Amino acid sequence: GWVAFCGESQSSRNASDCGKTDTSACSTFLGATHSPLCIRNGISLCMNILLLFMFFFSLTRKGSRAARRNLHWQQLSRLQRFSAVYNGILGLGYTVLGFWILQERWRIGQAVIPLHLWLVPLFQGLTWTLLGLTVSLRTEQLERNFLRLWAFISSFFALFLTSTAILAAATYKELTTKIVLDLLLLPGSLSLVLCIRYSRKIEYGPIDGGDLYTPLNGKNELNLNEHVTPFSRASLLSRFSFWWMNSIMKKGWEAPLEEKDIPKLGMEDQAQGCYALFTERMNKEKANNKSRSPSFFWTLAFCHRREIMVSGFFAFLKIVTASSGPMLLNAFIRVAEGNESFKYEGYILAISLFFAKALESLSQRQWYFRTRRIGLQLRSLLSAAVYQKQLRLSNEAKMRHSAGEIMNYLNVDAYRIGEFPFWFHQTWTTSLQLCLALAILYSAVGAATASALIVIVLTVLCNAPLAKLQHKFQTKLMQAQDERLKAVSEALVNMKVLKLYAWELHFKSVIEELRKVEYKWLSAFQLRKAYNSFLFWTSPVLVSTATFATCYFLGVPLQASNVFTFVATLRLVQDPVRSIPDVLGVVIQARVAFARIVNFLEAPELVNGHIKRDISERENEYSVYIKSANLAWEGDAPKPTLRNITVMARLGQKIAICGEVGSGKSTLLSAILGEVPIREGT
């Protein structure tokens, strides 16, 4: 089988000779059974057979969201039409190449063996044409699981062929038709993945609680379905280039923007949509695991997992492209010194440097924008969750969480958690960038890199105790801020009483004392933060000094190539080292804020189980029926607030509740609403 597929072992010629004018080279073109080309084509054939099997298997199944109507060419999106044309032509190119190789071998009287020379292009052309046209034009009629699996396999397959084609082109210094087709395969796979992604739009039902959007004067000028941000319907190219902002920027250039000019957020970014997705996931977690309560952190991470992974990919791409700059500079200096590896290497390096910097800028913009968007969604979600929780708080929980503290959860804690996604990926990109920078330094100055590594490790170790102190001071600062806001809110709410009893000076002194305590913890936190900043801002200077001193003592030759590489790489070391204090500060603040909000969301709620909504026939003549009830605001109070209460109110009956101050009139009304727990009675 291997002999028929790969041919008998014989001396091979240049791999680029097959597919060119000299077709006789196809007979000896890496024909040995152990040749890399045969192994590569064998893997390609197996992948093509797997993709074809998945394709025919998907035809026997019904898609989960199958579209029962046939779309005309004009109804397809530009992305679908481009993907269909591009991949169709690409598959046709593979098919023509396979037939051409077979025809040329037949014409000059050579055998069809080895099969891999012409059979693999034929199979690949057939597979890519069928799958490319089907996925591009009939995405909604295919099953979701098939599409996801096919997207993963085809992307991996295209990446494999593209990388091996680049390696072959760099090795033989020539481009063949097969190599060009393999290089064009990765954009085709990317277009198919984008077709799969943007053909599955999220469908939202009608907005519940429409009365909440109706103003009391009856003039409802708010239309939630109109004037939505262009970002919600922008194409992929528009999102990458931020072209969707042109309309509002043009309007702002012509005249100052007003509130009516600002578009509304899309449903996926509104607090309603984010909170609905969060509650749905929480309910699923509770249903699947009733033994313990679900984790708020992992539920939030699961709701935004896709955007986190996409932004993480752009963060990784940014670090890799930024790290390629010193390597390209080193190669460019070698070319300038006359050490060219091949012809026109300088032009290729200049073009590569341009594309690397362009890709770095693009990936960085996408990284920052997507993480800021996640932060906006998290802040909206947590604000809605805090608001909904505040409506259901039990009386005991209201004693622990005052109105000032709840406002602090919304204004301070939710904001800090919303800022955290922007810094989240820097928790691992700083380490990755440092590792890449040290590897480049090692290739430039050799063993002298050890001194730079020692300085960085010592800097991080010196920062560890300061980070623990920062976490402690941040917690104390938030507690002091809660106490001050609680006192200020109580003073403002009861200002009339303060004026009547002339207690202004006393409350002023109390608030000033609370401000002094808050200032004490704030100054301690900022002072440690200043220590961190000083430590990390001086570390790049120490790194460069230690490295050059080590080069001097070890006798490492300092030439133009390694000196310029070292200077360019030093910036890669400076950026992550200088950002470590800010990253640590944001992580500490977000951790403290998240713990406070989770503590509030886990507070006990009102329990209305003691209220019977479906009354028996004996009691159906009453609208409100309370018999021998003992009521208490606090569950562990020694004495109930109201004892032996019996109230029977018929429909339409008017009842006056009379009593002196503090006798329990409001308690009785709150008990009817279910806000006061009942100990005994009905």
From TrEMBL:
It comes from the Eukaryota. It is found in: Membrane. The chain crosses the membrane at residues 42-61, 82-103, 115-137, 149-172, 178-196, 308-332, 344-363, 434-461. InterPro entries: ABC1_TM_dom, ABC1_TM_sf, ABC_transporter-like_ATP-bd, ABC_transporter_C-like, ABCC10-like_N, ABCC_6TM_D1, P-loop_NTPase. Its main location: membrane. Signal peptide: none annotated. GO terms for molecular function: ABC-type transporter activity; ATP binding; ATP hydrolysis activity. It is a multi-pass membrane protein. SUPFAM superfamilies: ABC transporter transmembrane region, P-loop containing nucleoside triphosphate hydrolases. One of its GO terms (cellular component) is membrane. Residues 310-589 form the ABC transmembrane type-1 domain. CDD domains: ABC_6TM_ABCC_D1. The keyword Membrane applies. Keywords: ATP-binding, Membrane, Nucleotide-binding, Transmembrane, Transmembrane helix, Transport. This is ABC transmembrane type-1 domain-containing protein. It comes from Nymphaea colorata (pocket water lily).
